[in-house]
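Our consortium's second objective concerns turning raw sequence data into structural hypotheses that experimental partners can test. To show how far this objective has progressed, the report includes one record in full. It was chosen at random from the queue rather than selected for favorable results. The single chain below, 257 residues long, was entered without modification.
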Amino acid sequence: MTLKDIQNLQDHRKIEIDKVGVKGIRYPIVVLDRVNKEQHTVATINMYVSLPHHFKGTHMSRFIEVLNKYRHGISTMNITEILGKMKEKLKSESAHIEIEFPFFIEKQAPVSRAKSLMEYRCRIWGTHTDVSDLVVGVEVPVTALCPCSREISNYGAHNQRSTVTVKVRFKKFFWMEDLISLVEKSASSEIFPLLKRPDEKYLTEAAYDNPRFVEDIVRSIAEQLDQDDNITWYSVESENQESIHNHSAYASIESKS
C-alpha cells in the first residue's frame, strides 16, 4: 500500500520558510576529551533547514535519521558533514544545527588535591548554505572579587559568582578545555565542586589578592583571544551576581572581525 506524502504537495502561498525542523531533541552523544579521548554526554539538539515556497512541509523524521548516523561521535570536525547530509536528505538550500551539552572536567582542589568533576555548558552552532559557518561556545562559572570594595574596606571585600560566556569562530580544531582554562585564569578565582578547609582558605585569599571588575574579566579574555591566530571572531560576556545588591553586573565585548 502506498501512503500519500502530504509534505510534498504544492503550497500556493509562495512564501519561503527560513527555518523548519525539530527542536529540543535529547540525545546521547560522544564528544572529544583531551584526557580521556572521548566523553559520553547527553545533548539537547535543534535541527532546521530552509523550505522552498512550493513545498507544503518538510520531512521531520529525516532529521533524526541523519542524527542517528553520527551518534557515536559529534565534534567540530564533522558538523559541516552533518549539515551537508541534512541539506542532501531534505533537499534544502540551507541547514542549521544547534547543540548544547554538559562537558565534565576532573579538577583537583588547590591544597588538598581532592578530585571532583566540574560541569561546563558547551554549545555548537552550525550553518551551511553555499559556505559553512561554525561557532563554538562555552559557559564557565568563576569568582570575581570587587577591587573597589577591597580598596575602601578596612577588612574583607565582597565577591560575586560570575558566569562567563565565550563564543568563537576559528580556523582549525582546538580543545574546549583550553578555552575553559583561559576564562578561569581571567577571573579572581576559579570554582571547584569539592573543597576542604585548606582549599577554602587558599581560594579566598587568592581571590582577595586578584580583584577583578566584570570589565576586567571580559577585557582579559578578549586580549588573549586577540593574540590567538586561530580565532577569527569572538564574543565574550560576563554576568556577575552581586552579593550586596539585588542586581547583576554585566559586560560584553565582540570582536570587530
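The partners drew two points from this record. The domain at 16-254 is CATH 3.10.270.10 (Urate Oxidase). The two ends are 56 Å apart (CA to CA). Both points have been shared with the crystallography group to help prioritize constructs.
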